[in-house]
Amino acid sequence: FDPHALIEGVGITCWTIGAERGYIYLRCEFKKGIATVQKAIDEAYAAGLFGEDVQGSGRTIHVSLTMGAGAYICGEETSLLNSIEGVRPYPRNKPPFPAVEGLFGCPTIINNVETITNIPHIVKRGAEWYAGLGCKDDPGSRLWCVSGHVKRPGVYEAETGFKLQELIDEHCGGMRGGKTLKCVIPGGSSSKVLLPDEVAQVTMDT
Q1: What pTM did the predictor assign?
Q2: Which residue pairs from 140-148 have beta carbons closer than 8 angstroms and sit at least 24 positions apart in sequence?
Q3: For residue 40, with 0-12 CB atoms within 10 Å meaning exposed, 13-18 middle and 19 or more buried, which class applies?
Q4: How many CB atoms are located within 10 Å of the residue 201 CB?
Q5: Which fold would CATH assign to domain 141-199?
Q6: Looking at residue 187, what DSSP letter applies?
Q7: Residues of the chain with CATH 3.40.50.11540
Q8: What class, spelled out in words, does domain 3-125 have in CATH?
Q9: What string of pLDDT tens digits covers the 206 residues of the chain?
């Protein structure tokens, strides 16, 4: 994980849309990640990339790290906004949508870390480069999180379009202890349980 790609992506986003405030939201139990991201933010301020009159441009961009208590509901965007505001993290009625009236009543865009971290690479290499990664209908690379009885559980970055079986066998080293794969739950409790013959056919895209 490159924290500076995230910080740079937040800065580019703020600059592009004319925002003066950016917030990075992490669950409080991610102690190492919190320290890593905060250090990167501090370094960006020290380099003059955030703050008042950024690089002599007359523009103001402030970025801060906010910790949540780990509530599952904060995965819903308006619950997350309420959490940052310090109130009970319940979902808000829509409309108004966050892009119209979001954090502290201001227009707000919300993206996940994976999306924001891709921005500096796309700016540097171009949209055609990114569109050339992975499969045509869902280009780019993704972060694939794997847990369970595999030899190497973890987070793996790979281009879209490869087989789920490849993720398990090649990236994760196969099943732990020589066990036989029984099933895979690909997207949490709301997704279908995939049996081995289905796992062999599933393509990793969205």
Answers
A1: 0.82
A2: 142/114, 142/204, 142/206, 143/114, 144/171, 144/204, 146/171, 146/172
A3: buried
A4: 10
A5: Ubiquitin-like (UB roll) (3.10.20)
A6: S
A7: 3-125
A8: alpha beta
A9: 689 999 999 999 999 999 999 999 998 888 999 999 999 999 999 999 999 999 999 999 999 999 988 788 888 999 999 999 999 999 999 999 999 999 999 999 999 999 999 999 999 999 999 999 998 888 988 889 999 999 999 999 889 999 999 999 999 999 999 899 999 998 877 788 999 999 999 898 86
Q: Which amino acid is it at 63? A: V
DSSP sequence for 4-53: HHHHHHHHHHHHHHT-SEEEEEEETT-HHHHHHHHHHHHHHHHTTSSBSS
Every domain range in the chain assigned CATH 3.10.20.600: 141-199
Alpha helix positions (H), the chain: 3-17, 31-46, 77-85, 113-125, 127-131, 164-166, 196-199
> Count of alpha carbons within 13 Å of 146, Cβ hemisphere only?
27
Residues 82 and 92: their CA atoms lie apart, in Å, by 8
β-strand 141-146 against 154-159: which pairing, if any? antiparallel
